[in-house]
Design goal:
The protein has four helices and no strands. The chain is mostly helical. It has a single domain, classed as Up-down Bundle (Methane Monooxygenase Hydroxylase, Chain G, domain 1).
């Protein structure tokens, strides 16, 4: 993916990050931990598919789906915290307008998470 093309990055300007030698995304320092958690969730989802394939009792399948949902929500909350602490703060330091745009972007993302 071309990190410098705003259309390809959802309006994110990676050049501002590389100029200041900051990580390209707020989650970058914890990337390995996020990947580890997501791989664990991926395994849980495969397990749910196996349960359905094996005609496991409905409530047991739903219990596992609930666990995966909670795990994804935990990852989401971590990503939001990292985004606020890094991307939003960085934008606010650049200009009030850039900060306000990042706050709107974060608010929209949080609203999508709440509705999901």
């Amino acid at each position: 993916m071309d990190e410098t093309a705003p259309a390809a990055t959802g309006g994110h300007d990676a050049s501002a990050h590389t100029a200041g030698h900051l990580p390209p995304h707020g989650y970058t320092p914890a990337k390995d931990e996020y990947l580890k958690r997501l791989r664990r969730i991926e395994g849980q989802v495969r397990g749910i598919a196996r349960m359905v394939d094996e005609d496991t009792y409905c409530i047991d399948v739903l219990t596992q789906i609930s666990a995966v949902t909670k795990a994804l929500q935990a990852v989401s909350i971590g990503l939001v915290e990292d985004h606020l602490a890094h991307c939003v703060v960085d934008a606010a330091r650049q200009s009030p307008e850039a900060g306000a745009a990042k706050v709107r972007e974060a608010s929209d993302a949080i609203a999508r998470l709440v509705r999901s």
